[in-house]
Amino acid sequence: MNKDLIRSQIRAAKALLGDEEKSTAAQKVFGRLEQMAAFMMADRILMYHSLPDELSTREFIARWCDRKQFFLPRVNGVNLEILPYDRSSLRLGSFHIEEPDGDNTVSVDEIEMVVVPAVAFDRRGNRVGRGKGYYDRLLASLEAMKVGVGYDFQMRDDGDIESEPHDVPLDIVITESFTVSVRRT
User: Fold this and answer.
1) Does the pLDDT value for residue 177 go beyond 80?
2) How many Cβ atoms sit within 10 Å of the Cβ of residue 49?
C-alpha cells in the first residue's frame, strides 16, 4: 500500500482519539516495555519526545529518568544527533518538538536501546515514518535494539508496508495489546 495513503488513514484514526484513550494507550504500551528483559538490562536508552499525535513519552521518561540514562534526538540538517536528556535544557526545535540543547552529543555506539515512534508498523518490523527519513538514517547507524511503539491500529497487515532499500526494520514492535518480536533470518 502507498505510504502516503497509510499516513492519511492513520492520521484520521488518531484524530478520533480522546485524551483518556491516549493516556491509557501510553500506559499500556510503556508498561509492556518496562516488563521486557531488554529494557531492564539497558542503561542507555534513546527515546523520543512525543508530538501530540504520538504515544506520550513524558510520564514514562519522568518515571525512569533517575534509574536509566535517557537520550533524545535533535535535528541537525537532514540527520538526527543524540544528546543526553535533561528536563532543564530542552528547547523547542525543529517541527515543534522539544529537543535537548547544548554541545554534548553522544555517539550512536553508546546507545543500547532505541525507542522510536512511527506512523505505522507491520509484524516484520517494517515502519512508515513521517516521510523525512530522519529515523531511517539514524537507525541505519545503530547496533542497539530497535523498538517501535504505537497504537493497536498502527499495526498493519504484512505486505501493507512496502520495504525500500534504505528502510531499517525494527527488532520489536509494542502496541497496547501485543508485543511482536521480529525474527531475523
Assistant:
1) yes
2) 21
